[in-house]
Inverse folding.
């Protein structure tokens, strides 16, 4: 994703379902928590947790879980993921991530509780008493830091969990508050806003890692071909979009990017042209779903040969057209013995090689 993404953790993401009456609730909780785990090691994204939220979760006894999680897993015979793995991920989110306050340069905010609006309302209603108040404070801190702070920059999003049943899904959270005082970490900072002041903003809301990618868009994820993880995210977003549109996802294949895929794409202009990038990403997604945009044909050993090129590991070489006019770009790929795909490189009609 883009190099200036700040992702704040919604406390509900780490709260055990309560009351918990079914295995489905446990499954949804675990899948959402582990689904967000892949963001933790992304070098292009800063994941932050508000200190006020950490404290409130302890006060409401929402975290740590002690024996409650183990008991729920045993009661509903849920053994897909073990207790230690779940606790380790939750611990990583809450105890290893940097502070939202530190990242914004804001120590605390004093505001009128009666003049705060947070929509959708379910985001705070599903939290326990202290955690609910801390969540609202976190959002006000965030908006204050973004609008009048000295250090906030780039895209901001809230990493949350799915909305309750029978609740309309939302892709943003609206925050409005009347702020009376702000204590800045930099005591020399003098903001232009005079207190008290009214602040409001809309923050991107994502209920899972994939929904975040969809909201950011293919071009943002592609990031000019500089980020392999972002390129994979872009392909995944298009793949999921095709499935939602009615394409059968049952035959979806595993895939990866070869070492020369992005460098070759950038060489031929797919790094700085959004139309080319979109074409390449869609072509990859369609191949993964076995509905290629153009026919996928065997890549021969040499010109005039009728023997398909095979790599030392048994992977078979293929190629497909990206564009047929002008430069006539092609995408080269390997099909591995296990059926998975490795996207190898991009080339034009005069440089037909597979790397």
């Amino acid at each position: 994703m883009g190099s200036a993404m700040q992702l704040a953790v919604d406390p509900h993401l780490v709260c055990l379902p309560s009351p918990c009456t079914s295995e489905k609730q446990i499954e949804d909780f675990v899948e959402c928590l582990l689904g967000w785990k892949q963001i933790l090691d992304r070098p292009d994204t800063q994941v932050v947790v508000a200190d006020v939220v950490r404290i409130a979760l302890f006060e409401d006894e929402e975290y740590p879980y002690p024996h409650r999680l183990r008991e729920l897993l045993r009661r509903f015979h849920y053994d897909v993921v073990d207790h230690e793995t779940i606790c380790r991920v939750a611990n990583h989110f809450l105890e290893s991530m940097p502070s939202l306050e530190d990242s914004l340069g804001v120590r605390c905010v004093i505001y009128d509780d009666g003049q705060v609006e947070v929509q959708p309302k379910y985001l705070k209603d599903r939290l326990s008493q202290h955690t609910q108040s801390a969540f609202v404070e976190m959002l006000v801190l965030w908006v204050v830091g973004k609008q009048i702070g000295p250090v906030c920059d780039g895209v901001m999003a809230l990493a949350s969990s799915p909305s309750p049943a029978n609740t309309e899904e939302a892709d943003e959270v609206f925050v409005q508050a009347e702020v009376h005082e702000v204590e800045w970490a930099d005591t020399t900072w003098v903001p232009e806003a005079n207190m008290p002041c009214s602040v409001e903003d809309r923050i991107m809301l994502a209920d899972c890692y994939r929904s975040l990618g969809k909201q950011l868009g293919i071009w943002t994820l592609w990031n000019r071909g500089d980020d392999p993880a972002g390129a994979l995210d872009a392909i995944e977003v298009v793949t999921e979009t095709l499935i939602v549109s009615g394409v059968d996802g049952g035959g979806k294949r595993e895939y990866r990017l070869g070492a020369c895929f992005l460098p070759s794409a950038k060489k031929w202009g797919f790094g700085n042209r959004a139309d080319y990038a979109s074409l390449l990403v869609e072509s990859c997604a369609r191949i993964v779903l076995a509905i290629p945009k153009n026919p996928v044909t065997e890549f021969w050993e040499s010109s005039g040969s009728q023997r398909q090129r095979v790599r030392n590991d048994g992977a078979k070489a293929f190629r497909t057209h990206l564009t047929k006019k002008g430069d006539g770009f092609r995408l080269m790929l390997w099909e591995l013995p296990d059926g998975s795909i490795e996207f190898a490189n991009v080339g034009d009609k005069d440089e037909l090689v597979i790397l």
